[in-house]
Amino acid sequence: MLIQILGTGCPKCKQLAANTEAAANALGLHYTLEKVTDIAQIVSFGVMTTPALVVNGQVKVAGKVPDVQAIKGLLT
Asked: Is 13 annotated in the active site?
């Protein structure tokens, strides 16, 4: 599973990455976490507000930081 965090490295982006890692680990998933900070790449996903969570190429959430429990639902 490829999980991507889209954002420039702001505190919300870091929190989304931490929550996502916690959720994936709690579920026992085998995943690769990639942080995408290039604005052109972020826009190529159709995302205009960061942070955003992308799972296997599909944008799951943008512009907010869901808690660990909500992210578990997005990853399954």
From this structure: yes
